[in-house]
Write a structure and sequence with these properties.
The chain contains 4 helices and 17 strands. With about 290 residues, the protein is an alpha+beta fold. A hairpin with a 6-residue loop joins strand 6 and strand 7 (about 135-145). The longest helix is centred in the N-terminal third of the chain and has 30 residues, at about 20-50. It is globular. It starts with a strand and ends with a strand.
Length: about 290
């Protein structure tokens, strides 16, 4: 698949950047730069014929391991190494989508050249007095954060129509941070490179692996999670700042047919504003797989 890749330098985050979170921040960027009418037109495009599909972010040069039927291995050490593989290099991914998990037994990832790991860490910060703007004595907070390392991460966009604003929008989103605790400095990133490239996929596929969360539909091999999202922008201070929860398939899930999920209505009760609907981006980002 021909895509445009946005390579990001990331710091500590409250969660790795997912397609739905990035799309939500793009929606707020449209709202703040083009007004409510501009946002309404932008959303209408995604309801009918999206101008682009966006993936979640992955370590540069790696893609999520497709959830295929597991290869049977007797050796305990090798079986544990296989279980721990979350990301595959482009070369290994290309073999796995053509040949199945059997190809992992000959992969460099299994011999020690593994993809970057997402590390969980604790970050301590001080409480700030609203009256004086200085640190409060004895007030400390410990936040659970993800440390994504020094390497770059990549977000892939399949353009269906021209969307020349994407690099500027992502740069500005990265300046202010995305996701939870952006107000205390988490989720910031810089777009360090943009390139056009081909993502590996199987010819004559029988199934599809998604690079973005989507709704589970039909037959396939899914990893499911219940998602409890928060509202963004100036709705973050709403009476009910949480979106309506839903069940979704994670990145790497494999489907016999491309899921038909689009935008999901996740408006909480009460809505953050009269007449407003909150939408969650759940288009899949499909690459062909032979099973």
């Amino acid at each position: 698949m021909r895509v445009k890749a946005f390579h990001l330098a990331l710091g500590s985050v409250s969660a790795p950047p997912s397609a739905s979170t990035l799309w939500g921040h793009l929606a707020w960027w449209v709202r703040y730069t083009q007004g409510e009418d501009g946002l309404r037109v932008w959303l209408q495009e995604f309801q009918n014929d999206p101008p682009f599909l966006i993936s979640s972010a992955f370590p540069r040069g790696y893609l999520p391991r497709p959830l295929l039927p597991p290869v049977q291995v007797q050796d305990t050490v090798k079986r544990k190494k296989l279980k721990g593989l979350r990301f595959l290099s482009f070369g290994t991914f290309a073999r796995v989508v053509r040949e199945g998990e059997q190809a992992l037994l000959e992969s460099p990832e299994l011999e020690g050249d593994r993809a970057p790991r997402i590390k969980v860490a604790t970050q301590t910060r001080v409480g700030i007095s609203r009256a004086t703007g200085t640190a409060q004595e004895g007030i400390l907070f410990n936040d659970r954060v993800y440390w994504l390392g020094q390497g770059e991460w990549s977000v892939y966009v399949q353009l269906r129509r021209e969307a020349g604003y994407l690099e500027e929008a992502l740069q500005q989103i990265g300046t202010f941070g995305y996701g939870g605790k952006a107000s205390v400095g988490l989720g910031r990133f810089e777009v360090v490179d943009v390139q056009e490239m081909e993502l590996p996929e199987a010819e004559n596929p029988t199934h599809y692996v998604t690079l973005a969360p989507t709704l589970p539909e039909g037959e396939g091999f899914f990893a499911l999670e219940t998602y409890w999202g928060r509202l963004g922008g100036h709705y973050a201070q709403a009476e009910t700042p949480f979106k309506r929860p839903y069940l979704r398939a994670k990145e790497g899930s494999v489907f016999r047919q491309v899921p038909g999920a689009k935008l999901l209505d996740v408006t909480p009760e009460p809505a953050p504003e009269d007449g407003v609907k909150v939408w969650e981006y759940l288009y899949s980002f499909p690459l062909g797989v032979r099973v």
